Amino acid sequence: MLRKKELPEQGEFVIIKINKVTPHGAYCKLEEYGMDAYLPISEVASGWIKNIHEFIREGQQDVAKVIFLDTAKNAVDISLKKVSQKEKKDKINDYSSEKRAKAIFDSVIKLAKKEDSKEDILSKIPKNITTYHDLLTQAYEGSDPLAFCGDKTFKEAFYEAANKNIKPKTYTVSYNLELIITNPQKGIDLLKTLLKEMASKGNAVRYLGAPHYSLISTDSDYAKAEARIKNAEAILSKHGSEVQYVLKKVNK
Description:
This protein is of the alpha+beta class. The protein is built from six helices and nine strands, in the order βββββααααβαββαβ.
């Protein structure tokens, strides 16, 4: 985080390291905050736990959810069992991206020999940019998040690093298509035409074994990726009297 918070928020997902396991729970460190938290045995896993050591170990790093927060005492209770696999994956990805972005920022600071100016540069970054990853992404997208930092040398070096290190996020949507030509007079010729037209809309069309195909669309904008599939479906609909089709999204 660009501006470190003193405490996590209720319901926030946090990266933890388990320091000490006891029969009734575990004492952990919140890696992003540098503070301690407690993991009760009832929040380690669902169901009855006979031996806590079968579920967690000292030195283990994991993702937990903040379930209790006492701001007056800086006391935090956390849960492992209230974190889904998707939530865990997303948090780990965000944590890794933030660490990488911070390393890039610090590297540019060092190469530009601006270590003494680091806090001044950070203080001039807009308040709505709260993470190093946001800063790097906005620099890549050309919104000039360092417009007010006043250090042209550092700005140019950082924007160059952003262009080299940021990979644009892409979205891929996949659909299974069952396609049958009901007009025997047009047969294979109509099939070839339909597949070609759907591909011309930016979809990858793959043959899975008649009458099954897959349509795959990829874009940096999820809505545009979906729109390409809709365009393909419109092509099939135009030939409704000559074809039968079923288009079904593949959930990943």
